Amino acid sequence: MLQQFKSTDQNTVSFGHRLAASDAFKALFREGMLLVEESAAYLDGAGRKDARILSRGDALAYASESMRLTTRLMQLASWLLLQRAVNEGEMTQVQASADKHKVALSRQELASSPEAFARLPARLQELALQSQRLQARVMHLDRLIYGAELESAAPVVLGQIESLRAAFEVRI
Fold first, then answer.
1. Strand, helix or coil at 14?
2. Which of 54, 85, 111, 124 could be cross-linked to 59 through a Cys-Cys bond (beta carbons 3.0 to 4.6 Å apart)?
3. Which of 92, 131, 141 is nearest to 111 (CA)?
4. Which residue in 136, 134, 133, 147 sits closest to 100, CA to CA?
5. Distance between CA atoms of 43 and 130, rounded to whole angstroms?
6. Is the pLDDT of residue 11 over 60?
7. Residues 28, 137: contact at Cβ < 8 Å?
8. 131 domain residue, yes or no
9. For residue 157, what pLDDT is reported?
């Protein structure tokens, strides 16, 4: 099992891979799934009531913010489920790397201006801010796991480019 944590350098162990397979990841996973459930419950329940009493402009900001929240949470849930599948042996890290392009982890700012955001219902604000904090943590873990793979591959790729350059160089 330790072999899956080894990087291309046989003397180092990837911190990101160890963290992803740890109890800390399990806690992050639970937190992410709970946030998805809480957000869905709010948006389908009390959030609908909250949105009805907003002015037209604030209702538009509410709709925009709730769509961004939903999108952000679906990206996070997809990434967490993908990583959990690796941890449970349902797929390899290589397979996850190949499928990872389907999960667009991109930093999303709040949709609303600070003034409009401040006028949104407090619960929507809390959920949006919690999701951004979770997103930052997941993106950091993603860089630890997959960024290290890209960095370790760079010297190999550069070496191959130099070999190709040398092979095709015209010698006089």
1. coil
2. 54
3. 131
4. 147
5. 15
6. no
7. yes
8. yes
9. 52
Q: Is 34 exposed, middle or buried (0-12, 13-18, 19+ CB in 10 A)?
A: exposed
**Is residue 70 a part of any domain in this protein?**
yes
| Contact present, 83 and 20 (Cβ < 8 Å) | yes
Residue 70 has pLDDT above 50, yes or no: yes
The CA R_g of the chain, rounded to the nearest whole Å, is 21
CB 80 within 8 A of CB 29: yes
Would 150 be classed as within a structural domain? yes
Contact 129, 77 (CB under 8 A): no
pTM of the model: 0.71
Span 132-147, pLDDT tens digits: 999 999 998 888 877 7
- What is residue 38's predicted lDDT score, i.e. its pLDDT? 98
> Which residues is 13 bridged to in the sheet?
6
pLDDT of residue 12: 44
How deeply is 29 buried, as exposed, middle or buried, from its count of CB atoms within 10 A (0-12, 13-18, 19+)?
A: middle
Contact yes or no for 6/73 (Cβ under 8 A)? no
Structural domain range at position 54: 13-168
pLDDT for residue 114 is more than 50: yes
Among the residues of 13-147, which ranges form H helices? 15-20, 23-44, 46-52, 56-87, 93-99, 114-119, 122-142
